[in-house]
Write a structure and sequence with these properties.
It contains 5 helices and 6 strands; from the N terminus they run αββαβαβαβαβ. By secondary structure, it is an alpha/beta fold. It has one domain: HprK N-terminal domain-like (Udp-n-acetylmuramoylalanyl-d-glutamate--2,6- Diaminopimelate Ligase, Chain: A, domain 1), CATH 3.40.1390.20. The two termini are about 20 Å apart.
Length: about 110
């Protein structure tokens, strides 16, 4: 699933990485516990989370996650955009809850990791 399709399905906004928004992700994972994210061993992953912080970006970088969907209507800060851009992580903001965003993406064909 292309990141542009993810953003459209969620009625979301690509806050960082528009130039890379045509890449595809195959798997989705939802978590607010960042230590769970570090256990992932797949490629082409999208993370759905309500955590909107620099630590979220750093964790995604370490786990080699391509895209983070920031849920619950939270807005990324300029420092998050800067860090994500340097790390090559795409950020999408959406107003849905983590649960609803995950369901929409699952219905659209994104595969779960577990």
């Amino acid at each position: 699933m292309k990141i542009t399709e993810v953003a459209a399905a969620l009625g979301g906004h690509i806050a960082c990485g528009r130039d890379r928004a045509e890449i595809t992700v195959d798997y989705g994972f939802s978590a607010d516990l960042l230590s769970d994210v570090l256990t992932l061993e797949k490629e082409k992953i999208l993370l759905v989370t309500g955590l909107c912080s620099l630590q979220t970006i750093r964790t995604a970088e370490m786990a080699e996650i391509d895209c983070i969907v920031i849920a619950r209507g939270k807005k990324v800060s300029p420092s998050m955009v800067e860090l994500a851009d340097r790390a090559g992580v795409i950020l999408v903001e959406c107003d849905y809850s983590v649960f609803r965003a995950s369901g929409i993406l699952f219905d659209a064909g994104l595969k779960p990791i577990y």
